[in-house]
Amino acid sequence: MNSVLVSQINIGDTLPELSIDITPKLIVGAAIASRDYQNVHHDKDAAQALGSPDVFMNILTTNGLVGRYVTDWAGPGARLNKVAIRLGAPNYPGDTMVLSGQVKTVDADSARVELEVKGENKYGYHVTGKVVVALPT
Amino acid sequence: MSDELPDLTYYVGGNAGPYRDWDAVNAPMIRHWCEAMGDKNPIYTDAQAALEEGFPGVVAPPTMMQAWCMTGYSGQAAPGSTDADPMAVLPVLEAAGYPGVVAVNCEQEYERYLEEGDRIHFYSTIESISEEKATTLGTGFFVTQLCTFYDQRDEVVGTMRFRVFKYRPKASEEGQA
Predict the structure, then answer these.
(1) Which residues of B touch A124 (CB under 8 A)?
(2) What's the CATH code, domain A6-22+57-134?
């Protein structure tokens, strides 16, 4: 696997979009992999009793997917420094989240790149945020 | 009508902890995480690939930091953890008539990648509690928690700033009007 070098990056560059099918398997499987057993992430009846139409994705999974999205693009030489997200519309089963990203700043001295990342589903933005990643020189 | 609201400044600050991990950072839990997230970054699962990137062995995805200290199936904090509720203000606000809660922000910063064998714990402080705010969800308070994660040498490995909105839903406000 090749890594993106900081010298190859320009402000305004966009990352390839990543489309993620939101399935019960993903929501439940990733909640358990992140050791989050809150019932709204695996029990539809419990989620509905609390006013949601269905189970929904937990925050650790959103973080995990955002981190994966950036290193899918940047490669194994990248080091995540920061993942700062704002949470919006929940991810429910049957939906699709499309992740997109754009380079906002490039600091050649520290080899750090700041990205704006968004994840949109049919209700709007599930996640918007900023990721800082250090790239190989 | 709002119930009597206690002095919320009492709940700002503090340093609750430690909240400990159940297991040392380990390859099987990393692999389970990567399978579920669809993360194929080889430094998380292939020791040789991690070695080529300058690590002594596989490393954990940094976004997994919080997972090591989750309570898990039992709902109990790991042995050696404090019994203190890191967000003690939330049940107080609930009792005062603000039952809704929604996570708003999660900001994680990483000092280093965690390696197999690392032992993680964190301490929690409440950075701020906002004035009462009206939003589309209802009226309530933004509560900002800062968790600082340490390793077995008590060196900081990362931080997480987590903000929730604890609110009285609009519909119930109308119902009470």
Answers:
(1) none
(2) 3.10.129.10
